[in-house]
Specification:
homodimer; 357 residues; alpha+beta; Hypothetical Oxidoreductase Yiak, Chain: A, domain 1; three-stranded antiparallel β-sheet; 40% helix
């Protein structure tokens, strides 16, 4: 970047985003929750799921600018369709995915408290933002949290050359004691769509092994990749390095999300249509939470002490970098790319609100 | 192989194996279950978890031939230590892992029937054999089944050069209608230990990207790999192709198995010491089982129809090859490598029983 980077603090950005969602007609609590998930993504450095990347597509879906996109219903009627005590089916009624997934995790936590585990299958929902948000809600209650969501077809199955499954992310978080929580949030493809987008923005070639073209051949041009490329499953092409495992994990997400909810299967879902799977496990159903956390600390310490390969100081724990970014950005603000400044200006003007910076 | 291959049918091999376990003092039901898990592995082509690979190590552990191995307790007192309805903690009392995991899955299925989901954390257990066995028990009841187990340190964390986590397998199976069930059973490393062992037996070099040496450099000699190599996590070394995701998945298994059970963390467990995590989800808590299976069939059909890359006829579904092998071996028998014939002879003589072939 040649221009000096601008920063915005979380609070003004939160107020700004909420005002936009409220102006569109989102109920207050839903606007608050949807915004919070985006702000936490921005604070944790998951910029692909933050305000500057997500708000405009959400507005487009509310306004139905394209008929092939699933519309976002601003006043969804969230309903529990099935309830077996520890397992529930929740209808998201095409509202913000954040609203449905938040409600689902609250239900999962409540049921885990009485049954040890709670899980919620969410049908008829939309983009839920940063997957890790919801497991971290469970961590705040001394629970292990899990969230998965299927997404629009973007990845080839092993030996295939047409996209059939989404990047289908899964996230699991677990509380630690003195250390930040363990927090894994991963696409089941080699990279997420966000990584391809960042390569495209930077005008950089992608390494071989991220995407393939329509013949199944390696594709390294990120701009072409965005338009017509397909992701490879984690483990890459073929079987040699375990690509069938990444493909299998993508299918696990598909089965637990789309099929279990009785919703729609991955190869057929349209942009903006999503199904989720959310679970919470109360660690105190197994042992005192303090003991669990002490074991987590021990595990993390042992990993930190692992001798490293040349060029690396320390083995990291999933979620550690995001936690560090969060601590930094809470204090110093969220970086704003000069490229989005005109959009911020224009959007502020359109809604008649003050820009956040 | 230069000699013609011998085959043995499942029934005589089952009787032979059971007789050995009974002769050692295993209670009848436990001998039956432990044998059944091995026979099913042999039938499905998961030879690394079959009779010819597993029985001798089990005998060694029963006889405590090495003090650094966790002994197998032939008369374990399986006890439910905690019970929250949908989530239980089961003490395996160092018996056969198959016995504990079987009991755990039966409990999970029973609880899923009343609560929609059931999960069991298993502490103080040993090798459970082929992970996929237990999820397939759930599939027989029109449920989704999941099983994970931690294992002895064998894999480096990303940026590390010492093994800290096991190959930590996870398995998930789900019922289909006209098609065989979906069944994923995978180490969270690029390959399982079995693949390295097979390369060693065949005298073949491993491809780069499976293992590293003590400096973290690529290792392709399978014999050296068996002695002192470390596995790379699924996604390989570093971050470029998602190695941190495989490492993260290995940690998920570690947390759900070792830590949740309050057992022992992966970097510290000794050979033969294992902790498991088992779950069942009743699909009828969400929709009629027939509808779930019809959606699974639709998903599978759609994947089968995916255009393929050159050199491949069809996209496969996880578990499809194993199912095909099962159908073949049930009819034509399980292949027996000439290399194990002397061991079969000697073991038969030692126990005073007829060889199975």
């Amino acid at each position: 970047m040649t221009q000096p980077e601008t920063h915005v603090h979380a609070d003004p950005l939160r107020r700004w985003t909420e005002q936009i969602l409220l102006a569109k007609g989102t109920p207050a609590r839903d606007a608050e929750r949807t915004t919070e998930v985006m702000i936490k993504a921005d604070l944790r450095g998951v910029d692909t799921h933050g305000v500057f990347v997500c708000v405009q597509p959400y507005l487009d879906r509310i306004d139905q600018v394209r008929p092939d996109l699933q519309e976002i219903n601003l006043e969804p009627n969230l309903q529990i369709l099935k309830d077996q005590g520890a397992a529930l089916l929740l209808d998201g009624d095409w509202g913000f995915g954040q609203v449905a997934a938040w409600e689902a995790m609250e239900l999962a936590i409540e049921r885990a408290r009485s049954h040890g585990i709670g899980m919620v299958s969410v049908t008829r929902s939309t983009h839920l933002g940063m997957c890790a948000y919801y497991p971290l809600m469970a961590v705040d209650q001394d629970m292990i949290g899990i969230t998965m969501t299927n997404t629009t077809p973007a990845a080839v199955p092993s030996f295939g050359r047409k996209a059939r499954l989404g990047t289908n992310p899964m996230s699991l978080a677990a509380p630690a004691g003195k250390h930040p929580p363990f927090e894994l949030d991963m696409a089941t493809t080699v990279v997420s769509g966000g990584k391809v987008y960042l390569s495209h923005l930077a005008g950089k070639k992608m390494p071989e092994g991220w995407m393939v073209d329509e013949k199944g051949d390696p594709l390294t041009d990120a701009t072409v990749g965005l338009q017509s490329g397909s992701h490879l499953p984690l483990g890459g092409a073929g079987l040699l390095h375990g690509g069938h495992k990444g493909y299998g994990l993508g299918l696990v997400v598909e089965i637990l999300c789309g099929v279990l909810a009785g919703g729609n299967i991955g190869p057929r879902i349209v942009a903006g249509e999503n199904y989720h799977w959310v679970a919470a496990i109360d660690v105190s159903a197994f042992q005192p939470a303090a003991r669990f956390k002490a074991m987590m600390d021990d595990l993390i310490d042992t990993l930190h002490r692992t001798p490293t390969v040349a060029g690396h100081d320390r083995v990291l724990i999933p979620g550690e970098l995001e936690h560090r970014t969060y601590e930094h950005r809470i204090r110093h603000g969220i970086p704003v790319s000069p490229a989005v400044l005109p959009w911020i200006e224009e959007t502020s003007r359109k809604f008649g609100i003050d820009p956040p910076l």
